[in-house]
User: What shape does this take?
Amino acid sequence: MILTVTPNPSLDRTYGVPALTRGRVLRADGERVDPGGKGVNVSRAVAAAGVRTTAVLPLGGAPGVLLAELLGAQGVDVTAVSIAGQTRSNIALAEPDGTLTEINSPGPELSREESALLLDTVRSCAADVAWIACCGSLPRGLGPGWYAELVHRAHAAGARIALDASGPELPAVPAARPDVIKLDADRLAAAVGRPLPTLGDAVKAAEELRTLGAGAVLVSLGRDGRLLVSAEGAHHGTAPAPAVRSGVGADDASLAGFLIAGGAGPEALASALASALAHGAAAARLPGSAMPTPADLRPEQVRITQDPPLDLPLDDGF
Assistant: This one.
């Protein structure tokens, strides 16, 4: 059982347009509505893999009702925390060449009572949960200290917790002492305040986050694969995705794969990293924000190396 927490979920509307021209009336040639938010995507990927998952979400207004319905149709159990504000709606304009223009709403502001209720709901749902994953930006009204309380409650319930945060909240994440921090190389570079031109630089940066309190650090390196740094050392893995159709949600699918296979000890960590790579690569081969099923995975293409060469250059020069 994997529990996800998405503090600022969204209802994502995507419109297909022939071309994006400022100041003109644009007539869409297609529309789709999807449940959005990083934690929401993790639950969708977990459900697609046939594993039980519950998504804890602060929901309000008609968008919140529709979001819960869409997730239920995909096999995700939803535990809603009712809020006075309205769940945000994001808009994306997709052009034929693949260019995507996104307009993301800041979302509602949670009151002190709603923030406390969200934490209490996570605690009440945490019994017999293997992992809790809290992903995405914090809405207005939740300060960085909210992460520390969430981690404390997760550990008190006997669950491991993974945090995937961004923005001004990121510096507070390692000190909360989560079992896993998941981030991309750009955010890792920002966290340590320097570029990461080689794999060794990324390993050192991840070790710094561990020194600050994180149990393990899972890093997406883009075309250079994934890096996992833990008390067992550094593991680096790659999985080819030659026919990339969409990167939307691929990193979230990768985290889902890690959590599904996650465990303790060197062999379990390597297996978890391999699962993360297989799920992320499979998601990239699917259209839109579709999440992979077991039939989409190609685990035989995954390569894992323990104690990888530290002088390996990172192609994107993070």
